[in-house]
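dumping this here so i dont lose it
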């Protein structure tokens, strides 16, 4: 089966501020719940779900590689390094579940880029300390939380919405731990995730 390359959506694109990236029209449509395919047939619904899942898969590829860059940087000390490796295994499990689901829906999973491509897009050369790595990881995790929560209403299949909720829960746990290690405080406002 031929693998197609789709643009990988950076988790930073969900953040406000200077780290914002521009999203393609397809990615924006997939993440905002816009109807990507016409009609109401089941194949159209599956195709729309596959489109959303491929955006999510691109995010997971990025997370796996971001943690690889952080772990390989020599900047992380134990037990932070151990947590980064654990989080990376979570993202690999997310990737595997997404690939399996995309395949089961008759779709083609988005291909992973080379590590150097992720290093460039994440500006890994600017990482000079453990806190730099942790701040990048926290931004990516928060972006993932918001992305997964944002797509839940877009799924045509309710089971996929439940999976997105479970993925968001993992990402929220990662962000919470990273935020705590960085000295951050709990969120002051209720209902702040996914907003």
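and the seq i came up w/
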């Amino acid at each position: 089966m031929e693998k197609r390359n789709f643009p990988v959506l950076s988790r930073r694109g969900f953040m406000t501020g200077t780290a914002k990236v521009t999203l393609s029209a397809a990615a924006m449509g997939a993440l905002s719940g816009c109807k990507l395919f016409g009609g109401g047939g089941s194949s159209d619904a599956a195709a729309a779900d596959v489109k959303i899942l491929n955006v999510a898969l691109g995010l997971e590829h990025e997370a796996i590689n971001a943690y690889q860059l952080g772990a390989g940087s020599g900047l992380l000390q134990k037990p932070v390094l151990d947590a980064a490796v654990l989080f990376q295994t979570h993202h690999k499990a997310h990737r595997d579940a997404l690939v399996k689901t995309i395949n089961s829906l008759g779709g083609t999973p988005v291909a992973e880029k080379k590590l150097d491509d992720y290093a460039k897009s994440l500006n890994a050369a600017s990482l000079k300390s453990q806190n730099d790595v942790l701040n990048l990881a926290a931004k990516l995790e928060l972006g993932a939380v918001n992305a997964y929560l944002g797509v839940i209403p877009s799924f045509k299949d309710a089971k996929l919405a439940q999976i997105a909720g479970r993925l968001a829960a993992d990402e929220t746990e990662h962000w919470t731990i990273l935020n705590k290690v960085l000295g951050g405080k709990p969120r002051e406002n209720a209902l702040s995730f996914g907003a």
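Residues 42-72 form the longest helix (31 residues).
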